[in-house]
Amino acid sequence: MNPSGQIKTLKINGREMSATGDQTILDVARENGVEIPTLCHLDGLNPIGSCRLCLVEIKGARRLLPACTTGITEGMEIATETETLSKYRKMVLEMLFSERNHVCAVCVSNGNCDLQQLAADHDVTHVQFPYLYPHATVDASHDWFAMDHNRCILCQRCVRVCDEIEGAHTWDVSGRGVESRVITDLNQPWGDSDSCTSCGKCVQVCPTGALSNKGKSVSEMSKRREFLPYLAQRRKDHQ
Amino acid sequence: MTREELEKLAETEHESQKAFPHSIHVCVAAGCVSSQSDKVRAAFDKEVAERGLKEKCKVRGVGCMGLCMAGPLVAVDGNTTMYQQVTVPDVGEVLDQLGKTPVKRLVCDSTTPFFARQKRIVLENSGLIDSEKIEEYIAALGYKALMEALTSMRPEEVIKEVTISGLRGRGGGGYPTGLKWSTVAKAHNGKQKYVICNADEGDPGAFMDRSVLESDPHRVIEGMAIAGYAVGAPKGYIYVRAEYPLAVKRLQTAIRQAERHGLLGNNILGTPFNFSIDIRLGAGAFVCGEETALIASVEGKRGQPRPRPPFPAEVGLWGGPTLINNVETFSSIAPIIRNGGAWYAGIGTAESKGTKVFALAGRVQNTGLIEVPMGISLREIIFDIGGGIPDGKKFKAVQTGGPSGGCIPEQFLDMPVDYESLAKVGSIMGSGGMIVMDETSCMVDVAKYFMEFCMTESCGKCVPCRVGTVQMHGLLEKITNGTANNSDLAMLEDLCDMVRNTSLCGLGMTAPNPVLSTLRYFKDEYIAHINDKCCPAGVCKIGKENLSHA
Amino acid sequence: MKISKLPLPSQDKRWKIIDARMRKYGYQSDALIEVLHVVQESFGYLDETSMKFTAAALHLPLSKVYGVATFYSFFNLKPQGEHTCVICTGTACYIKGAPLILEAVQKAAGGVKVGNTTPDGKVSVVTARCFGSCGLAPAIVLDGEVKAKADPAETAEIIKTWMTK
Questions:
Q1: CATH class of residue range C83-164
Q2: Confidence (pTM)
Q3: Domain locations in chain C as residue ranges
Q4: Please, is A19 exposed, middle or buried when counting C-beta atoms within 10 Å of its C-beta (0-12, 13-18, 19+)?
């Protein structure tokens, strides 16, 4: 008997659902129309469970667990909408806004931004935490793309897509904690990178206006992500 | 090496040791070395040779004897006489008095509670053998447990003894060791299994592991080999932090010696069991003490943890089932196998068996390393063994568990030291760091200190820890600066709750603990800083005077 | 086992030591941290040349090497001073007055910021989170040697002599 093909039953928000053994809580939820907010997760990339927005309550578990990385077990009982979860989600979003310098009014992704959308979805009306106002730079050395570190939320989607799908691994993270910055090669200007293939995948997967196409003005950047699960499947078929 | 050869080696070593009527043991673990004990040892070697005493007096560099603040420590003729703060000029006099009345001014009373109240299991060889000579370890029952396990026990029987012993993870988690071994033993996913010894010891204020590695490295090797046999892993790694160069050196020597004697490598002790150990260096990241971050580091990556489940016991190093245990945990294995799990379970309390090594430091008379049975009271540790608070000051709190732990106030001095009791008062056992504080410490400042530590050590992967620790630190700074108000305190408490419950790994989850514990017992100090704009302990720059009426 | 046919960056003998260490680990990518350690031991810090060489020899992307080099506090990407003073800021040392020593040392070194080197390249002042000498707090390391029960005034004197040598 193939364990990943085995059918399991579980409950999400009181509703009975069935799933195959290799699915995550997020997979099952989405299949059944249950919305769980995510930010670092993107269909086609390996999940890392870092944004903590998709945390859910599981009966009998000591801790909240991320839906994007947690596999399902038989008889699991999951709650995705509670007062506590809602409070924590708001706090995560507020923390992100306080961490860097997010100014929607002058951003290319205004109106087409995952972070902005989530804030709206979760009634984030103001940020209770003091803004950190870090010194963050803009790298416009590449011919076609721009990187604005003031808008980066360290979701690592760019790192993952460049490593897992394109294969070049041009992007990685340097430093630790709030000092972390995504960098190209040996922290050189992006335009000087020898490994970058200019495929633009990182720009498309970036949830905010951190990575954008040059020549776009405020609110003009919109991103297309459908290519990702398609490519992921193509690569899997090759193996 | 065969059983007979091992026993013969032990016997030969015993005989050769007995031939010396006198012995001089000089501690050459890092603590005493920083007080120039290596020069003292060299001086003894030279003087003994010059006096023609080489056949009569054996000079040894040994491991930690515990009372670090009195170093360099020198023990003469077993432990009949112990000398403290021995310098090179004292060497002549010590040799003059060999076998006669001791040199009074140098004598360190070894009958004090510091020495008498300890129960040394993990430290049973520390200070008694030369850590760079495998023969001395073998003479002290070394590798007997490994032989026992490999030749007359099945892996399940080894795990059974460890389970019966009640040993719990000594790195701080307190997870039942037998259960962990059992999980790894049962895990099968087609990938090779590994045993990893976590010697990262990142808690500031903790130096138990360093001591064991420098004083008795073979002990750790033996424990790991027994574990490898029990869980089915042919390869082990010791992940040592780079800040411990002496420990790394001694481990390298020990591993080489073990390999040469056929106690590591292929067909150990003539059995089909293969086990080899390599050292991997840390590079200054506290988060790498966390299991999944440690694994990432061994794999040559940034030390970022990953979500669990799956746990390393099932999917660990390079995807294989991996057993990770702390230095102290592995150091307890050989005696458990030799004496049986029931013997170990006879020490300690119902839920916390055995002994624990503590690094006693801070504002206490006797700072150094001690090993005591679980269940001993804090009062006995601090006032009897530790000698109480110096300079006529008053006890204020004792901090256990490092940046993941809490501060325990006076009212709990009579509580037993065990996993559950410490958790009940809002702290944790942790790895063993025990910092004593007196009235000159400001508890808000202490909380801020630990938060700063977590903030700079945060790997940065998850939002709550990365940003939350910065925000909490900012609020603590406001409080210690006298610019905070009550809503800041409320925000701090809110953040503590959220960061604790949403962080990805133990670092973030426990970062709020020092704040929570000081809020629980020393809230008046927070209130004084916020409402009265003063620091009762006189530490913070806002001064001791109550300025709220100004 | 991969064998590297990479030419060494220069005739400097230290590259041979580094290559030997890489060879010991079979030029495997997971030996990155061990290799960076030997590079730093040899040259005192990690520069662009050594990181590029390491990346090529171990078949690693440049950004990965940079990411690892900057994650761990032990690695320096800037050359160190002639003399280094490391002040332990672990809990026991903190309680026993490490901040006072740090202040005295910084003053004696012309106000240099922690983690930096004086402009004349003579003295580097860094902090460390505990090297395990807690029983002898406060502890500092002067040019690789641990000094127990350090005193602010005494230490400042040593720094002053370093500055003038």
A1: alpha beta
A2: 0.94
A3: 13-71, 83-164
A4: buried
